[in-house]
Amino acid sequence: MASGEVLIMQGIQDVFGGPWGVWFSVFCARWAVFLFVPLAALTSWRKRDKALMHAAYEAAWAALLAFMLAMGLGLLIERTRPFRAAAEEVILRVPPPMSEFSLPSGHASVAFAIAFALAYGSPSLGLTAFLLAGLVAFGRVAAGVHYPSDVIAGVFVGLFAFAIVRALHRSLRAKDLRVRPQDPPPAF
Questions:
Q1: In this structure, what CATH number is given to the domain that contains residue 49?
Q2: CA 133, CA 1: separation in Å to the nearest integer?
Q3: Domain that holds residue 26
Q4: Taking Cα atoms as reference points, which of 55, 28, 30, 20 lies closest to residue 41?
Q5: Is residue 154 part of a domain?
Q6: What is the pTM of this model?
Q7: Which residues contact 136 (CB under 8 A, 6 or more apart)?
Q8: Which of 9, 90, 120, 182 has the fewest CB neighbours in a 10 Å radius?
């Protein structure tokens, strides 16, 4: 008998079983995460807002840390991917991932780390970023490579990675401001 998570996956795969649904699932699973790059870069560049520029830098570092944390946790937890564990119930819609393990989702971890960073820099941009991260998480489940709990864990890994990067960045900036000599008063 299938677990509750497998039943959820089957339901999603049934609803998105037509050609357009499969295309949408695959797009979200494989390519939507790359939309964060132009979102962060263009927004921070276009507005020339220092807070957004810092958010874009933090997003990049948080994404890297989230990826490393997700891969490390995957090796420690060793949860089998659903398309292997429930091969008769779950359809694999993308090429098999290089990592054998599913918990947590690396894609969701990275996507949510970026979303948290961008939301910190701009709440209105954060709404778009969280929507995009949600699509990435949905796609990973719909494609059969992650259980719903894997992507939920990815949200927390992303938040943790962002929190670490934000704290380090804030600490470094504070230290930089303390070390930097004061500007001399303007000469008249």
A1: 1.20.144
A2: 31
A3: 4-178
A4: 55
A5: yes
A6: 0.85
A7: 28, 29, 32, 33, 107, 108, 111
A8: 182
